[in-house]
Structure formats: C-alpha cells, structure tokens
Amino acid sequence: MNDNDCVLRVEEIHKSFGDKEVLRGVSFDVRRGETKVFIGPSGTGKSTLLRCINQLTLPDQGRVWLDGEEVTNSGARINHFRQKIGMVFQNFFLFDHLTAVKNVELALLKVRGMSKAEAREKALTELRQVGMEDWADHYPAEISGGQAQRVSIARALAMDPDVILFDEPTSALDPELTREVLEVMKRLAREGMTMLVVTHEMGFACSVANEILFMENGVVAERGTPDMLMHDPQFTRTKDFIGRFETYRQGD
Amino acid sequence: MDLAVFTFDVLLPALMKGLIVTLQLIACSAPFGFALGILVATGRQYGGRLISWLCKTFVFLIKGTPLLLLLFILYFGLPGVGITFTAFTASVVGFILCNGAYNAEYIRGALISIKDGQMIAARSLGMSRWQAIRHVILPQALRRAIPGLSNEFIYLIKYSSLAYMITVIELSGAGKLVATEYFLYTESFAAVGIVYLVLVTITTVAVNILEKRLAVPGMARGTTAAQL
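^ inputs. structure came back:
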C-alpha cells in the first residue's frame, strides 16, 4: 500500500477500564476515501476504539497517526487533530440551546475563526448536503431523531475533516429514520469521504464498506471485504454473529 | 404635623435619597456577584483539584458567616490589619462575596444537570475545554439557573438593608432616621416596606420577561412535558 494515501493509522491500541480490558491490541490502516465498518457483539470495545482515535478516551497503549502526524501524546495540539477527525454519536449530542444552523456554525466561528457571514454560508451549505436547510432555524427539541442525526453529520462535515467516526449513528432511531440517515452516509461514502462506522446495520455494511472488521473480546477477530466475510468458508465467526443477529431481528 | 405634609415633604424625599443609595449598592454588587458566582461554580466543577477546593472552601466560609458579621469584619475589623474601606465599599464587597457564594451554588447545580454529551460533542469538534464551557455548557446552565439566581437577587435587594448597620444610609436607614426623629414608626416603616415590595415586584416581572426571551424549546420552560 502506498503510504501517502494512508490517512489514518491505528497501532496496537489497548484500553482497560478497571479490571476489564476492553481493547487488547487493535491495529489497522485507513486509506483516503475508504469506508471501514466495525461490527460485533456489544461490549467488545467498538465505541471505545473510536473514542481512542480522537482521544476522547485516552488509550493505555498504542498510537494513532493522522496524515503522518501522531495524534496520541500530542498535548494541546489534540484540538487541531480533532477538527480533522469528525465524530457522530449515537445520541446526536446536538447543542440543545442552539438552532440547527448555529450547531453547525459554532465550531466554525470559535475553532476555525471564520467570520459570521462565512460561517453562516458554510453551515447552510452543509445543512443542504444532508437535506436539512429548511430546518436551519429549528432547535434540537423541535426535530426528529433522524433529522437531528443529519444535523450532527452536517456539524462534523463543516470542519472539512479527513475522516469521520460514526459511533452507532442509527442505534437510537426507528427503521424509517435509520433509512434517511443511512442514505446520507451512503452518499458521503460514494463522494469519497473517509469513514469509520460502528453499526449493526448489516445491509449498510455490505453495500458501503470497503472492509468489515468483526470485533470480539477487544480484538479484531476477522476482517475482510463484505463479500469475503459472507461467502468465504474460512470466515465463520462473522457469519455466526450475523446469523444470530438476523434471527433475533426477525423474531423481533 | 399633618400626615400629608410629613409624607410628601419629609418622608418621601428622605426615602428617595435612601432608595438611590440602595440602588447604587445593588447596581455595584449584583454584576460582580453574578460574575463571581460563575467563576466559583465553574472553578469548583471544572477546575483542578486546588482550584476546586478553593472554590468549595470559599462557599463554605461565606455560607457559614452571618452577612452582618461579614460586614462588621470588612468595615470595623480590616482597618486593624491596615485595610480601610469606606462604609459603602465595605458593604458592596460584603454583598458581592455573599451574593457570589450563593449564586455559585445555584449555577453549580445547573452545571451538574448538563449532560456529558454536550462537552463530549464540543471537544470532538476541536474546542478547548474552556471554549466548550464558555460556549456550550454555561449558556445552557445559566438558563437553568435563572430561577435560583433571581431568588438570590431578590435576597440582595433585601439584605442591602444591612448596610445601615455599618452607617450607610440606604432605604431602611433613611426610614429609621425619619421614624425616630418624628416618632412616626408605623407610617415610616410601612412606606419603606412598600418600596421594597415594589422593587421585588419589578424584579420578578423583569425575570419573567428575561426567562421567556431566553427560553429554548426543549429546555426548562420550553419543554412540552411542562404541560403534563
């Protein structure tokens, strides 16, 4: 692999909470424009892994590199890296006191130092990207979960990140709202955004992922293209997991 | 003396002078008390161990000291160690400390009520801790603290009368002087009481308007569950 198009490198991340070792050495490289999807049972460290990448959780061991610069142990420069690593959360975490457009503007004004007019224009452009420009002046409490998640995607996009981390972006949404959020994410993937996605949406994973990483007990147990994981007989655990998962879903 | 003459020629002019002093005391104390409250609450909640401890101790000491005693210390006690305040300044300093400490507790309660996700989202966008507190946490917390803060502001209106005990002739003091000079206690103190009531009423109405104007859908006043 050409080193130049490796935008994110994650090396041997370990993380424990108390006695529980949640991550036991996870490594991978992410090429520019690639979408990697993380699946696996709950409690296997997928969300923790994402948070270790932008240092919202400090890993005990291991290193993270963004565009050849070390993100781990970067001190105050972490704020610089976080601008380049967008994050979208399961519960949206929109700023409750701000309208949709101001949610997107805030970091542009305060972190990027844009003028008000510039920030407003950029924010509206990003809201248009996710189909939320008509809702620009609504507060988080006035929009649906799917709309809120799209605003939070716009908020992440506005910083022109090198990569966006999606932490179970549709787990708090019903199927209808899930679909509208996944549509936006699929389009981003097609347009070449680099994305790391933790999700239980297998349909999305199979259609969008360049690589699926199946995590179990704090390590990547199996990894490969969706096609490999679904059909190659050497991979069994992912299929097992998905099988159990689908049975459960159908019985739901 | 005719009661009308007493009221309009003696009592009201005296109370008006006193009221001006009371308003000056409040105007000099309230903004700094508000700022101090924010600083202490934020320091306690988000500061390092030392700052947090200092803020906690400050609140503990002020809470544990009668305001009157605090004023006596500031006005009569401090000259003993070479610090001399005018009576007005000593009152204002005392009110700021007291108002600030209580405000801090209301604001701290509001800070605690803000969910972690707000800070996490702000930091994930590259904001510094301080930027996150300044632009995301405090604007939400202060809205939630309005009822408590307005309560404390109303207390300030009333405990400003303690300034009289260290010789500042404010509203209550002015009333007391007139009352004793003319032996018309009931009339004088009733009039003083009415003025305080008017001040408190104005405050209550103003806070209501402020709260409505700052209301955000889904937060406090704006929630739909408020109708349940």
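DSSP finds eight helices and no strands in chain B. Residues 157 and 166 of chain B are 17 Å apart (CA to CA).
thumbs up if we can close this ticket
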